[in-house]
Structure formats: structure tokens, C-alpha cells
Amino acid sequence: RRTQVGIVGAGPAGLALANALTRQGVDCVVLERASRVRVEGRQRAGLVEDRTVRWLRSQGLADRLLVEATRHDWCDFRCLGHTVRVDYGAYSGGRQHYVYPQQSLVRDLVATLEKAGSPPFFSHTVRAVTNITGRRARLECEEGMEIECDYVVGCDGFRGISRAALPATGHRVHNRRYPYDWLTVLAEVDRPAEGVRYAVHRAGFAGMMPRGPRLSRFYLQCPPGEPVTAWPARRIVAELRTRLADGDPAGVPAIGALPEVRMLRMHSSVLTPLRHGRLLLAGDAAHVLTPSGAKGMNLAIADAAAAADALVARLRDGDEGPLAGYSAARLADVRRVLGFSEWLLALLHLPADPAADPAKELAERLATVRRLATPGARARAFAHRYVGSGVR
Ligand code: RFL
């Protein structure tokens, strides 16, 4: 079997890329290890950035999102018993987040590929990507299928195998481990979270993200390396209330069952460069950020958009330029977003240093968030970077 572009992985990156290529008449094949039910059921991201929605729209992929998503243009910071509302919509010229679960977007993207007659091959595990510097790259599946490709795009997430195809030298991985972990929880709630709430608290950070009318995602800072078993449901709910409400019980919905509780080892990892020969990397396969700032899925789709443009230029028009610039252009964006995400992490976590004075640290943070809520250059810069307006 032959194709122009072989895509490993049917997450947001692989599916967005396949849709864009198919729309432009470039032949591609998506191979996905998991079953369709599993891929369409994975609950992860929920905040879709302004620039992501604009791109999806331009590709005819946002019809359902535009009808069903709720929009958000403010977030609350809770610190020292004060709630500071940051109206980032107002400071970014009216830009908004769209709250639309990742699994709904994934479902939409699978459906459009199906309609176009080129659905992903689910339950097909790629075992190896070979010959990436030869005349044609090759994808080998455990199920026996082999595909020759002009180009391969590894969209197989952080634990994928595409990275293994890179030669031993000529690339680098920049890893960073943070001095805390996050418990991530999906919880049933009695009313929807009206918006994102970040609590900077003496006991540690806690966050609440809207996901739907009866479900919210919560984050709780924990000591690094702590096992998830240290957090029975009752402790989670009590700690969320302490940190998120912080004297304002009305600010937090009642929390019921917890359908998902996981410990997230907080780290980031960026691979450079993002292309070697006929292999391009996109999404979490290329870079993993912490969930702070809700950037991962948005970066994955921005990679897919750039990869699609580059591959269409090369395969349809014979123009090598955009492909040659893919890695540098995407890494510049990734570094900018990573910088923002780390700045936000530093704001939300008190230093582990025992010599630090928590009262002073908290007062400083309150002053910082108040500046984000006061008209001016700082508020505008935060708003644009947070909402992902595409303005630098
Ligand atoms: P994915 O979604 O991990 O998809 C990779 C796919 O590749 C498949 N695969 C293989 N297929 C074939 N052969 C192999 N050998 C394969 N190996 C792997 C896998 O089965 C899978 O289907 O990567 P992609 O497409 O790059 O998308 C990345 C996003 O999923 C990720 O960045 C976000 O979920 C991150 N993230 C968030 N991002 C946001 O933009 N906004 C958010 O609000 C947000 N919240 C989150 C998040 C991630 C979270 N977790 C899972 C840490 C909240 C959480 C809790």
C-alpha cells in the first residue's frame, strides 16, 4: 500500500492534519492503536483557544463546536480571601475561549474523515517508522499492514513510537521536572463552573475548569512523587473546598462522585528539531506541557495546521520552503507558549523553599493578579497570551 502522507495517531493532531490534507486533495492514511470507542471516549482537554477555533472554522470543522460550545472570557483568581476577576475578553479585543470537550472535537474530526471516505484505521498499532531518509518512508503495523509514504507525521502522543525513528544524534530533548505534582480529577457537580478559578493558597494550588453542566475538572497541587492512593475521595473534596472556596463557599459548586482521579507527574518536554528527513513530529509527540494554561491540544492543532500547509505546498505545488521552515516556526510558537505556561505555574505555586515567607508570597501574588485585572499593557499581554489570540 502507498500513500502521500502516513499519520501515526488519531488524537487531535493526527485527525486535524488528516482533515486538512484530505480537504486539499492530498492522500493520507491515519493509523491508530486504540479502538474507535476508546479514542472517542478519552476525556482530556476542554478549553479551545480563539486561534484554534478560527482555524477549525476555516477548514469547515467547527460547525458543531460553534453551536454547542459555551464561551468564556474571564477567569477568577482566589488569593488571601479575595476573588480577583480577570476579564481577559475585554483586554484582548473581545476574544474568547470555547469550552468544548476534547472527545467531542475528536468525534467531529473522525466523522468528517469518514464522510470524505478516508476514516482512520483504528486498532492498528504502528510498530516502526523506517527509511525516513530514503526515497520513501515506511510504516510497519503489528497487524501486518505496511505503508510506503512520501512523508510520515508522528502524531502519536508522548508515549508514541515515532520519536524512536530519529537517529541517535542530531536532535535533543529538553526536559523539565517541576517540584510538585497535580492530582487531576473529573467530578460531578451540582451546577456548572461558571468559569475557570485558580486558587493560590497556603496549602497549595487548586484549580477548577468548566467542562459541562454536570461535570468539572479540578486540579490539586501535591508533593512531588505522592501516590494517588494518598488521596481518597473524601480528602480530595475537603481539600478542594478549603483551597478553592477559601472563605467563599458560594464560589464553588457542591462536588459529588469523582469518575476520574489521576496523579499527573508535572513535567514538560520539548524535542528539537521537529523534522528529520521524511518524518515530521506534531502535538504531544513533539512537546508536552503541563495543563496550566490549557495549551496542549491547542498547540497540537496549530502544529497540524502548519504541517498541513507545508505538506500541501511540497506535494501539490513542489514548494519545499514551508516544509524546510516547519520545525523552526513551530518551535518558536511552542517556546512562547511554554514560557507563558511556566510563568503561570510560578504565579500559582508558592516556592518550596522553607525560608520563604508564605504571607509575603501570597501578598505578592495578590498584587500581581490585581495588575492583570487593571487596564494596561500587562493586562493586555496576559489576555492575549491566555486566550491564544495569535497576537504576540
Ligand atoms: P494524543 O491525544 O495523545 O493522541 C495520540 C494518539 O496516538 C495513538 N498512538 C498510536 N497509534 C498507532 N501506533 C502507535 N504506536 C501509537 N502510539 C500512540 C494514541 O493511542 C493516541 O490516540 O496526542 P495529540 O494528538 O498530540 O493531542 C494532544 C492533546 O491530547 C493533549 O495535549 C491535551 O489533552 C492536553 N490537555 C489540555 N490541552 C488543552 O489544550 N486544553 C486543556 O484544557 C487540556 N487539559 C490536557 C488537559 C491533558 C490532560 N492529561 C491527559 C494530562 C487535561 C489533562 C488531564
UniProtKB/TrEMBL annotation:
It holds the Pfam family FAD_binding_3. Signal peptide: none annotated. One of its GO terms (molecular function) is 4-hydroxybenzoate 3-monooxygenase activity. Keywords: Oxidoreductase. Its EC number is 1.14.13.2. It comes from Streptomyces chisholmiae. Residues 2-340 form the FAD-binding domain. This is 4-hydroxybenzoate 3-monooxygenase.
